[in-house]
Design goal:
It is a single chain. This protein has about 325 residues and is α/β, with parallel strands linked by helices. The protein has 2 domains: about 150 residues, D-Maltodextrin-Binding Protein, domain 2 (3-Layer(aba) Sandwich); about 140 residues, Periplasmic binding protein-like II (D-Maltodextrin-Binding Protein, domain 2, 3-Layer(aba) Sandwich). It is globular and about 60 Å long. The N and C termini lie far apart (about 45 Å).
């Protein structure tokens, strides 16, 4: 081969390599800012109860954050759920959390002075209300819960908030017409059919706590029909975050046998405070979006995190750091 041809081949190889490097650089720019030192320090993330989706998502997100920001320490806190999570972030006891939109709005409606500190980072995925009974139970509707032993969630959970509204919509006083219990997904499934006649749960689907017992024993879902959802809407301004839907038949295949379940859904939000460092919040927002598929392989609900809908964090305004990220990837 002549020297001229060799020089041309080298030039083409270098050009091709340069083009590949540019393409790779553009990909990295979308994933991580080039030439920028990752944020460091310590943040606190409030999750949820054991065996719940909030806690599992929090653990997996912590792992993803460690890849992008190896010098950022993320402390996870268990909690009762949405109501406690919102208060923790608003009062500074946690820096980031996941909470259902109705719990966030209820906190605002209650007129807490710290409400103005809250900001949205991303809309994540939907929670489905799941009313669970033994397979041979005579409970066929929410109205049939009267006189029964019913777990309505922990005192500061999102489950407690929505279960109370559903019961009232069905004409049931949660304090007088049932025997209320405070079980969550960590204890409710084990007590079903023994100390409990039914329990409410609200989360992304499937939830490990239910998925586990679906493999060894059986249960049944009680439908929450559209008329009941309409009655819930009439109770509170925060109730407009609920929508009538069907839990997909793929949520718990061995239990649903191909059937969907009429129920209520409400969106979950990743939230923080107004004074959170914008640069840190931008990096965290980026990780949340780009880790969707990785986390979604373990937490099915995470598959529904979508860049196109993540910006809709109503009733909260977007944090400036999150806003900066969404603007940077806007087509």
């Amino acid at each position: 081969m002549s020297k001229a041809l060799t020089r041309i081949s080298r030039r083409r190889a270098l050009q091709g390599g340069a083009a590949g490097f540019v393409a790779f650089g553009l990909l990295l720019w979308w994933l991580l800012p080039l030439g920028e030192e990752p944020p460091s320090g310590t943040i606190t993330f409030s999750t949820g109860t054991r065996a719940g989706v909030y806690q599992e998502y929090g653990k997996l997100l912590r792992d993803e954050l460690a890849k992008d920001m190896p010098n950022l320490k993320v402390k996870l806190l268990t909690s009762d759920g949405s109501q406690e999570n919102v208060e923790r972030v608003a009062t500074g006891r946690a820096d980031f959390t996941i909470a259902a939109a109705d719990a966030v709005d209820t906190f605002k409606i209650d007129g807490r002075t710290v409400t103005d500190r809250l900001r949205g980072v991303a809309r994540l995925y939907d929670d489905y209300v799941q009313l669970v009974v033994p397979p041979d139970s005579d409970i066929r509707s929410v109205a049939d819960l009267k006189g029964k032993r019913v777990a309505i969630g922990r005192p500061h959970s999102g489950v407690r908030l929505i279960a109370t509204r559903v019961l009232k919509a069905a004409g049931i006083d949660p304090e007088k017409d049932i025997t209320p219990r405070s079980d969550g997904i960590d204890t409710g499934p084990k007590r079903l059919g023994k100390e409990l006649d039914a329990f409410f749960w609200s989360s992304g689907v499937p939830t490990d706590g239910l998925d586990d017992i679906a493999e060894t024993s059986s249960f049944r879902f009680v439908p929450i029909d559209t008329r009941l959802v309409a009655a819930v809407h009439a109770q509170s301004d925060a109730a407009h975050f609920y929508r009538a839907t069907n839990m997909p038949e793929s949520a718990y295949p061995s239990v649903q046998n191909g059937d969907t379940v009429p129920t209520i859904a409400v969106s979950n939000l990743l939230i923080t405070r107004e004074n959170m460092d914008p640069r840190l919040t931008e990096w965290i927002t980026r990780t949340v979006i780009k880790s969707r598929d990785g986390i979604g392989r373990h937490v099915h609900s995470a598959q529904f995190v979508d860049l196109r809908t993540a910006i809709y964090t109503d009733p909260l305004a977007l944090h400036q750091g999150a806003q900066r990220y969404y603007q940077s990837v806007k087509p």
